[in-house]
Amino acid sequence: xxxxxxxxxxxxxxxxxxxxxxxxxxxxxxxxxxxxxxxxxxxxxxxxxxxxxxxxxxxxxxxxxxxxxxxxxxxxxxxxxxxxxxxxxxxxxxxxxxxxxxxxxxxxxxxxxxxxxxxxxxxxxxxxxxxxxxxxxxxxxxxxxxxxxxxxxxxxxxxxxxxxxxxxxxxxxxxxxxxxx
Length: 181
Fold this sequence. Notes:
Blueprint: H1 2-47, H2 49-64, H3 80-101, H4 106-134, H5 143-152, H6 156-171
Helix pairs in contact: 1-3, 1-4, 2-3, 2-4, 3-4, 4-6
């Protein structure tokens, strides 16, 4: 009887171990899917809706209007209020992206950088260009807030993007943004 009980206990222990291993792998798969879903959500946030509209305003201001604002929105020209709002919408979107990406491992951040890095670089170049070249002239006095924003960035994806954009500003003040890799 004792050997039968030992055998039953051993079978129970093996079964429990197998259940634990299966649960571990299922949890790993769920965590990977959650990271992929979060990254897809960040990509959607950065390329649609409010941020897409803000990116359009900032791009029009930067490239079509060469940094000049209109007194009123006529013939597709953006106004001072439009471009200031666009700056903050994009900056807040980058904060949201950083919030997600800072929870990723270095490997997952590298994957994220491959997937959405160009979008983040373009948005970062635009906000840094605006902050450095036009913000103060348009009455945006947020140097302390901007310094705090750039110091609080935790993800390597956004840190790298900010570094490239700042290097581009130093090399060519009117065009902020060094090329990726």
